[in-house]
Amino acid sequence: MSKTFLIVAEHRDGKLRQVTLEALQAAARSAQDGDAIHAALLGGGLDALASELAAYPLAKVHVIENEGLNAYNPEAYVRALTPLLDALKPDGLFLGHTAIGRDLAPALAAKLSAGQLSDVTAIDQEGGEVVFTRPIYAGKAIEKKTFLAYPWVVTVRPNNIPAAEAAGGGAAIEKHAAAPAADLRTVVRDVVRKTSGKVDLTEAKVIVSGGRGVKNADGFKPLEELADLLGGAVGASRGACDAGYCDYALQIGQTGKVVTPEIYIACGISGAIQHVAGMSGSRIIIAINKDPEAPIFQLADYGIVGDLFEVVPLLTQEFRKVLA
Amino acid sequence: MNVVVLLKQTFDTEEKIVVSNGAVSEDGVKFVINPYDEYAVEEAIRLKEESGANSVTVLSVGPARTAEALRTALAMGADEAVLIEDDRIPQDEYAVSVVLAAYLKQQSADVILGGNFSVDTGGSQVAVRLAETLGIPHVSSITKLTVSGGSASAERDAEGDLERVDVQLPAVFTAQQGLNEPRYPSLPGIMKAKKKPFKQLTLDDVGVSAGDLEAKTARQSLSLPPSRQAGQILSGDLASQAAKLVELLRTQSKAI
């Protein structure tokens, strides 16, 4: 029997998030011929985004319209999606493993009494079964899992599954008016955008990361400069966060975030096992450390033994030449 | 106000992973309270010390070894521990949340605290599933919590942005780093913990039949990630190393 899958799209600053296109690709990889993939977009003033999304290989784009849904509220989102879930009866939901996805997916999974596989990095069809790969212990081990029953809920780790490509076709757009969110028990009073205009750590293609070697909060400045130049994000080791040099939101490791950028530049990071777990899936690792014995050099593709405060500005200078 | 903390025992984050017979080997492994759950325990104790909570119960669904982590939480200052241990409970977030919900429906918890995710299987599911199953709101990934009367205000980390959220109790919260600095158990705390109530329950005690807990997912295989090889350490003066690195990124690894 043909299946119906639903992507819950995410948008930010008026743009579709890359991870939404990756979730779409994840659904496509889970699908057989004849299966239908739908997308849901929540918020107000989303006509342009809906048209953009409709160019991808989708059966239908559902716009759940309500200005109030432009800001995420778990209770409001679950409520707004419920009529669509009831009507569509999806066999699988796909979301990004993002601040929204990791919060919303389990709520929807519970609502549907569905199993969920979180933080999936690859999807393959093997002998009629869809097999989901997900790192556990922050990447110290890899498990492959299957669902034993429908419906499924899947969250995909950003930057791992290639984004779906626009097919040029125009999927139908269906608008649903969301009931105004009355008597919610959850109220999001305000959002302080500390990351405005910055690339999210889990989605960044380049990460410049600092450890205890950055010495203090100001020590992150040269790292930020390099990250900005490369269109990347700044990360940190637990040591740097515990020492108060930066916000915990930047922490990469088994506690903190797991990241898989194209290029990871570790500056003044020794390479403790708990940090390595969070970044060893990066495509290229560059280590900059004064200590030639630092364990980070054991897994780095390229290493520079030297003081990060000398090396990072030199690197920034060289990249600037190349990118000019 | 009654506070319940959802706790999982996990590997210490410094542990290496050894796979044997298709499972993660637990031989000689040091176990700890899942680091995110430890923030939840600390926050619960502070709610008792500073906001007049009546009791703090630490609750776990897990194997017998979990008792040690629960004892640690009691030594930190929790009042009571409950361990639901039953081989018939599959290791599946759906099943665990159903068991927790069944137990908590019989209790009166105003604030339920858990970790943002567990550092082992890391699904970030159980606490939020529990909230939905109990029909109460949740706020995940909190870095601040203030409880007064029948409501709470929390600050939540959303990928680096900060959201201020008000919520009616009862509610579920999951702890993010930065929420607090967990205390170490004191020696008197450890002594006292030995006399605190410690309930061991099975599925029958909770009133769930094994038939209601069919796992929704199954593990097909488990492996270690491909190990990374040390690459090249550049040489020469730092300026030429920097230039060389950028060149290698262009020509050798085609990354820029």
Q: How would you sum up this structure, described in words?
A:
The complex is a heterodimer of chains A (about 325) and B (about 260). Chain A has about 325 residues and is of the alpha/beta class. Chain A has two domains: about 5-175, Rossmann fold (3-Layer(aba) Sandwich), CATH 3.40.50; about 200-324, TPP-binding domain (Rossmann fold, 3-Layer(aba) Sandwich), CATH 3.40.50.1220. Chain A is built from eight helices and 18 strands. The N and C termini of chain A lie far apart (about 55 Å). The mean pLDDT of chain A is about 95. Chain B has about 260 residues and is of the alpha/beta class. Chain B has a single domain (about 1-215), classed as Rossmann fold, CATH 3.40.50.620. Chain B has seven helices and 15 strands. In chain B, the strands form three sheets. A nine-stranded mixed β-sheet of chain B has the order 11-10-9-12-8-1-6-7-13, with helices on both faces. In chain B, helix 2 crosses helix 5 and helix 3 packs across helix 4. The longest helix of chain B has 17 residues, at about 35-50. The relative contact order of chain B is 0.17. At the A-B interface, helix 3, helix 4, strand 7, strand 9 and strand 10 of A face helix 3, helix 4, strand 9, strand 10 and strand 11 of B.
User: How is the biggest beta sheet of chain B arranged?
Assistant: 9 strands, mixed
Known CATH architecture of chain B: 3-Layer(aba) Sandwich
- How is the biggest beta sheet of chain A arranged? 7 strands, parallel
Q: Helical element count of chain B? A: 7
Helix/strand order of chain B, N-terminal first = EEEEEHEHEHEHEEEEHEHEEH
Which CATH architecture of the largest domain in chain A? 3-Layer(aba) Sandwich
Shape label of chain A: globular
Alpha-carbon distance between the two ends of chain A: 55 Å
Question: Per CATH, what is the topology of the largest domain in chain A?
Answer: Rossmann fold
Mean pLDDT across all residues of chain A, rounded? Answer: 94
Main β-sheet, spatial strand arrangement of chain B: 11-10-9-12-8-1-6-7-13
Shape summary of chain B = globular
* Strand element count of chain A: 18
State Rg of chain A: 21 Å
Helix content of chain A: 25-40%
Please provide the count of β strands of chain B. 15
Task: Determine the CATH superfamily of chain B.
Answer: HUPs
* Termini gap of chain B: 56 Å
| Strand coverage percent of chain B | 25-35%
